[in-house]
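TL;DR need structure tokens for one chain.
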Amino acid sequence: MLKRTLSFLLLIAVPVTMLAQSGNLFIIGGGNRGPQLMKTMLDVAKLSPSDYIVVLPMASEEPDSAFFYMKKSLEGINLNPIYCLRFDSGDAPKARLDSLAKARLIFISGGDQSRFMKSIKHNSVATIIRQAYENGATIAGTSAGAAVMSEQMITGNELLGKAGYNATFKKVVKGNIEFEPGLGLLKNAIVDQHFIVRSRYNRLISALAEYPDKLCIGIDEATAIIVKPGNKIYVTGEAQVVTLSKPQKAGVTDKGLIYADEIRMSIYVAGQEIRSGN
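>> reply
TL;DR here they are.
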């Protein structure tokens, strides 16, 4: 049985490495994006009157709807222009890439994170997003748009047993979780979304077992983490953020069962800082 260490403001001795950057990340766990959460996102972005927002809806099966609802969520609280930019896996027009590069707030919609990464596989969109981040832009995303922030991105697919996408993993076994390359804006952290609502503890424990040196962050719906320069991570929104890290005496049985004597677990609420370690 796993021993758990719970705290509400715990010093996590796992450094969260990001790209060299002067921008921010605003990572939403999915679900409702109420006016207060969106206002906080705009406050973080600190847009000037001449700045604009770009929505990247390629994770969604219905990208036009994804853009419509994102734009609707900003009604009444935003005066800056909002543009939808869609890219596929082929070469992207230079004018569209230039527009993306100059955006001060880039928002990645929900849907399927693998679909999003496939859409930018053979163009320079990922590079431009990273450069915009390094140059001070805010990169935001919800649900699938949260998952893509990690370097090792959880796809949602199980590889063993009832293989394929499953909202909640039934087992905690070695080799069951699938990863693909994400944007890599967070180097030493793995993000999971819809976390408490969908009971994704088994999935995040599986991720930690594969990458025990990383901070695994589960963000619930209507909740976000704000990653600021200097490895400062704060929680905002209506629910909680769970972190798992530092498994002790961990291993795998000959049947593939994951075990650990202890996993450091913390639960955070709005206004608290996730201390990512000295």
